[in-house]
Amino acid sequence: MTPFVYRCTDCGRTYSRDEVRYLCPTCGESYRPGIPLTGVLEAVFDYPAIHGRFQPGRPDWGLFCAVEDRYHPPLPVGNTPMARLDRTAAELGLGTLWVKNDGLNPSGSLKDRASFLVAAEAARLGIDLIVAASTGNAASALAAVCASTGQKALIFVPEKAPKAKLVQMVLYGATVVPVKGTYDDAFRLSLDYTAKRGGLNRNTAYHPLTLEGKKTAGLEIWAQAGFRVPDAIFVSVGDGVILGGVAKAFLDLNRAGLIDRLPRLIGVQADTSDAIHRYVETGVYSDAANPTTRADSISVTCPSNAHGARRAILESGGLTLTVTDEEILSAQATLASRSGIFTEPAGATAFAGLLKLQASSRALPADASAVILATGNGLKDVEAPLSRISIPPAVEPVLEALSL
Amino acid sequence: MTPFVYRCTDCGRTYSRDEVRYLCPTCGESYRPGIPLTGVLEAVFDYPAIHGRFQPGRPDWGLFCAVEDRYHPPLPVGNTPMARLDRTAAELGLGTLWVKNDGLNPSGSLKDRASFLVAAEAARLGIDLIVAASTGNAASALAAVCASTGQKALIFVPEKAPKAKLVQMVLYGATVVPVKGTYDDAFRLSLDYTAKRGGLNRNTAYHPLTLEGKKTAGLEIWAQAGFRVPDAIFVSVGDGVILGGVAKAFLDLNRAGLIDRLPRLIGVQADTSDAIHRYVETGVYSDAANPTTRADSISVTCPSNAHGARRAILESGGLTLTVTDEEILSAQATLASRSGIFTEPAGATAFAGLLKLQASSRALPADASAVILATGNGLKDVEAPLSRISIPPAVEPVLEALSL
Fold this sequence. Notes:
The structure is a homodimer. By secondary structure, chain A is α/β, with parallel strands linked by helices. In chain A, 36% of the residues lie in helices and 16% in strands. In chain A, the strands form three sheets. Chain A has a six-stranded mixed beta sheet, sandwiched between helices. In chain A, helix 3 crosses helix 4 (137-149) and helix 3 (111-125) packs across helix 7. At the A-B interface, strand 4, helix 4, helix 5, strand 8 and helix 6 of A face strand 4, helix 4, helix 5, strand 8 and helix 6 of B.
């Protein structure tokens, strides 16, 4: 852990970590439908201290961490593998292609990273109840981490969350409240809950340490790419907090003088859940009116981190794309059959974006290095690919029954 | 890689790795129902060479590997986390309790380790087709690894394998043949196939490198326990090959002079799939007549590695136990809610065995260190725990609707 302050990403005011909890007291409005969060706080570390102590040969990631080790949950999170796909890179006209497989976190998604850090913060604050709204993954993540620490998890999920995710969170022992309506309804309800009834709110972007937790995926990408900055990182975007977390990793590395450029961040959204894409393209924010995408983890009407995600994409020289559900499910199958990595539709959205970009006039150049961030495990939603594949009928167990 | 020979575990004859492929030519009978494999081969390394070169501070696991690096698939496999459960250890009267979470392999099970090594061997031999019979996990594992290498996977599965496992292997691009009947029928059919139509057979124990691949889980347990030998390792047992692989890890470490004792191996079976348990207890082998357990991954009539598993358990001073399906599903929920680790029923069987042992007169002593090997991801079969839990009904998204 390195000393840090919170800085408002809108007005720039700074606060000690015990002065504020969620948003900037000046800029953070209470949540209203159709208004992305304002006053989101960013942790600003003592970068010279990190610079002086960080050794790439023996990386001490704790230097980039905002909560003391002694509060960390016992569940190992992160340190997921990054696979190199040489055949697919060549086919797509890329120099190098990696897939960072964050579906291999304990609850099956990158969200474990955020839950880990917020649970640590709750332990530091002596708060025993952690509350979250989630499309499913953040909730499973919070439930898993709390199971390991003995903290209580209270979770609001849209009633249409995939069954596997609901089973997980109940089995982990969380209190699960399916909510009629959308993720945005669940989000608002969870804010009401912690405002009026207590507990620490782990909502994404709302609690500043969710971004810090997700940042660790970006730090690992840098290390696994050989302590080099990839040219582009493709990230599926719903709320925009995973993208924000990855951006924060490279900002921190840059501020600490460990890298001298940022990777281009390519945000990929489902075409029915495209609020951030339109915001980046036009500069004007409006909700995604009717997000119906099969990629449930990125199905969002009003992305909480719309402002931060847009800023990060533009600062990095990146861009956004949208893809259809058909492109997402096709990319899921392509990725599985080329790499052995089975990622959920939201994770495959990033790969669908790469396929689309490389087929366009904006394709990355032939020597470019790119990373696909696969955010969740495909086993979380086996119904999604089922619509595209068929399981062959059973045969008698004799060689003569086989046409192969 | 270190030079090795194959040695028959029955007659002790040795062979170079290019003289034999599957079983000892003298002792290995062709597969017949009701007869566990005989003539299973074991890789015997140049242990003095390993001893001279292995440094616990910078472990080079390649020294224990039977196939050259250059043939290894690009899919990262293994290096899964091992979580320490201090609260649960105290409750169970143990000094230390770890859970090795091998469900966090790319296809969601420990079987990736065996498929990885057999795919490497196929590459070395220039064979493009790999064939397997599987209850589901080995097949998904083979399909995943072959997706990463471009090799072809042909897979025979019992028609009742869980849907998530079938979806996975089809999506990975394998040729999947559901077979009417049991795992044992699929096993026999796959042997017929490679004998008469070609390809490399990856069947568990039948191909000697399946044991070697699974061995890596044991090596990692040793390292993650601080390069110490745990007092006991609990392993769910179906075919007995995972247990055999874990045993081989500690035998190799012992032969290389790196450890001076073996962990006690506790094999846990479902009570309807208990052939190895009865074999250990009585010394007389007979099939499990009707294995109906919900823990599909360990549902086996005639375990291929019955002889090897029994030998390993007895040599280690270990024992076997059986548990009911009710105990398995209860243990799955208990483990999830205490640790954040959601393992499939077969993985939870090991934990059910620990709970049962600690409640018995044979309980491990209060200072003992124990490891639970969680072999597969719970997301592979979310129907199993669904029978025991309920998802609460959805509520309106207003605070007043909550009784919490």
